[in-house]
Design goal:
Length: 322
């Protein structure tokens, strides 16, 4: 037991060390410094506009990058449309009628193509948009390692198996993240993204009605707009964080301690198990959460990128170049 948990802690530190030494992945924040010096300004300006139109879009783009990275790595595969016989990832269970922000990626890509045609990948645009969405909602910032290339394929099958559903228990979540070389600490830090944005009733109904670790007043509040019988109200939205739903802070963790986690997969992080102590640390120390979140975002952004001459730079993020 002790040796297994210290081995896991070591695994988390080792990855961090490799990451900071630059030996982990071939991505670099200065990848486009010469080929597209205005890239980060273009992405930021387009994101500011999108978040002014709808603040939630910051959250939606953070999630889009996560769902890109967990399927075939961070390669823009989630952005490919279904056309003809080609089946992409957009209709996979975790994505269908749920992942949003594709038009914002298109808008950024169009703006980037005007100044730097054929240079910047859609996968890198998604990583920058996720960072900017986080920052614009009040979260921490970081230098995004860049140089990913775009896939020519997508995988409905991998999206179906590898995107964790909200019904997962802690062991299953840890396994799903281990499969992507992310340790339990990364899981708990990244789940803090649920300090912003919304979930549909269909995703939290079972937890709110049947969960054993739910604050009764919180359950009553959520049941008001999420009827017990599906499909009634399936698509009704509730915020993850009641108080500060569009502010990226550490309130997610105090909600967990108060048994106000919205999804089953949220509350299992504070349920008498291995992540309880870390959740309490993130409540007490927002700077620790910010720093662990950034570390984990960079690790997640390093999942199996296509680099060098692999893949391509798509001209249109929705279709493979012909
Ligand atoms: C630990 C496993 C995770 C599960 C099971 C999970 C599940 C979900 C579900 C079910 C929703 C609501 C979707 C809907 O109802 O349409 C959601 C929303 C969201 N997720 Fe996660 N998630 C996980 C991890 C993450 C990670 C790692 C991130 C980013 C780092 C993230 C960021 C978000 C954001 C920002 C939203 C709100 C999106 C919006 O309002 O448009 N999630 N997640
Ligand atoms: C995706 O959602 C649409 C609209 O609800 C539905 O008609 C379609 O069957 C879903 N696709 C898959 C593959 O589940
Ligand atoms: C609660 O759990 C039972 C037994 O698994 C299930 O039949 C029922 O549909 C659940 N209720 C809700 C509202 O999810």
């Amino acid at each position: 037991m002790a040796s297994s948990s210290s081995r896991k802690a070591w695994h988390c530190l080792l990855t961090l060390f490799l990451l900071s030494s630059g030996a982990y992945g071939q991505l670099s924040p200065s990848f486009y410094a010469r080929s597209c010096p205005t890239l980060q300004l273009i992405v930021r300006a387009t994101m500011i506009k999108a978040v002014l139109v709808e603040r939630r879009m910051g959250a939606s783009l953070l999630r889009l990058h996560f769902h890109d990275c967990f399927v075939q790595g961070c390669d823009g595969s989630i952005l490919l449309d279904d056309v003809g016989s080609f089946v992409g990832e957009k209709t996979a269970p975790g994505n269908n009628n749920s992942v949003r922000g594709y038009e914002v990626i298109d808008q950024i890509k169009r703006n980037v193509e005007l100044l730097c045609p054929g240079i910047v990948s859609c996968a890198d645009i998604a990583a920058l948009a996720a960072r900017d969405g986080t920052v614009l909602l009040g979260g921490p910032t970081w230098a995004v390692p860049l140089g990913r290339r775009d896939s020519t394929t997508a995988s409905m099958a991998e999206a179906t198996t590898d995107l964790p559903p909200p019904s997962f228990d802690l062991t299953m979540l840890i396994q799903a993240f281990e499969k992507k070389q992310l340790c339990p600490r990364d899981l708990t830090a990244l789940s803090g993204a649920h300090t912003i944005g919304f979930s549909q009733c269909a995703n939290f109904r079972d937890h709110i009605y049947n969960g054993t670790n739910v604050d009764p007043a919180f359950a009553a509040l959520r049941k008001r707009t999420c009827p017990a019988q599906p499909p009634n109200g399936d698509m009704n939205l509730a915020p993850f964080d009641v108080q500060t739903q569009l502010v990226f802070d550490n309130a997610y963790y105090s909600n967990l301690v108060a048994k106000r986690g919205l999804l089953n997969s949220d509350q299992v992080l504070f349920n008498g198990g291995s992540q309880d102590a870390l959740v309490r640390q993130y409540v007490a120390n927002p700077a620790l959460f910010a720093s662990d979140f950034v570390t984990a975002m960079i690790k997640m952004g390093n999942i199996k990128p296509l680099t060098g001459t692999a893949g391509q730079i798509r001209r249109n993020c929705r279709v493979v170049n012909s």
